[in-house]
Amino acid sequence: MSILLRGGTLVDGTGAAATPGDVLVVGDRVAQVGRVDEVPADCRVLDCAGLVVSPGFIDPHTHDDAAVLRPGALDGKLAQGVTTVVVGNCGIGLPPVRLIPGQAPPPPLNLLGTAAAFAYPDYPSYLQALREAALQVNVAVLGGHSALRVACCADWHKPASRHEIDAMAARLDEGLACGLAGFSTGLAYPTAIAAPTAEVTALARVSARRHKPFAIHLRDEYDGVWDALTEAFEIARDSQAFLLLSHQKTAGPRQRGRARELLDRIDDAARDLPLALDAYPYDAGSTVLDAESVRQSREVLVTWSVPHPELAGRTLSEAATALNLPLDLAIPALQPAGAAYFHMDPADVRQILTHPRCMVGSDGLPEDTCPHPRLFGAFARFLGTWVRDLQLVGLPEAVRKVTSLPAEVFALSDRGVLRAGARADVAVWSRTEFADRATWTHPRQLAVGMRWVLVNGCVAWSPRGSGEAGGQVVGG
Ligand code: ZN
Ligand code: CU
Fold it and tell me: What's the whole-model pTM score?
């Protein structure tokens, strides 16, 4: 089976200038890039005149851990040209958590769903389930610190004992041996905040030994971000792991306007530390509902609430009024719950996301009732509004940030670049039409302008919607 993408504008992912040309795909590989004169018999020809042909996009920061196993649940990503997602970010993951009957997953693990989703007692069983599933996109899996702590520590409100660290390291190493793509932590979260730096370093070292990266959601993303960054650098230095700073931001009223300073600090560290960042093109974040984040925000939206599902999509003050409670009492009354926090300055967000080491990571939360629009919109908003309309970076550089840069970070050596011999993950899209449609009130609207998406040579997206499921487990 072969497919000829004829007469498009090729943007190859390396950062090189666009060139007109064809791409021939044979089986799951790119066979030829440039001018294709000899078309194989029974080759399907797709007319790409006026369209950009680029490598499929890699979303390095997702919480699609459960969603990838549900048929059709990744349509929102395919409509944005995403062909690979990295799950297991922020220390959150399904395996190797085992809940006792009646036990709810503790926050933030509950961002991945209810207890029923936690069906994998170890990494091999989850990886096996992925390999047996009809995956719409490729999936790389990080082992999550909070998931390991909940699985291995008698009391995750305390630092792990030597014995517990050994148990977590053994579980993680077992996972890395059978296909995990790295290790992640989220030190701001209740399930991990008690972990001292040395505990994280011990686990990051396990990942480094297998040449895999270490992703960190910093211990503090508000006023303590400076010390939290220092801690991340220390862990990376001591463990020798490639450092990935997750959803990097300056947040809260006192950090406003400090992105340049933050990036200088990161550039400084990057002189002797291999590192990268991810960020999403929005000035609001989203995670579980917590009082500190509410304090740091100018506006808060409720994205889900177990006791009050009817309040999803309302502002926190509207929810408080509906509950007839003051704000500080509405927060516990809504729990367990999720929220979106308007706590960033748009200029800071732009400065961070356009940094050459920064990738676009959606950080979307597919299980939320009313998710942050970044889930369905991050890549279209970046390439549409930011790159085409505002011209914050040129097209070749923008494409590099969503293709070869994440491929390098996760050592996906045969993806992220359009070249003969690479895996055929390809996005074909209209530069003029590509746009996000997801809004705060209607967040599950597909992006527009993506014409065809190939995943390992399978037509995963076309003008008719989703098609073949050609995804594989990658990054192991
Ligand atoms: Zn996070
Ligand atoms: Cu995240």
Answer: 0.98
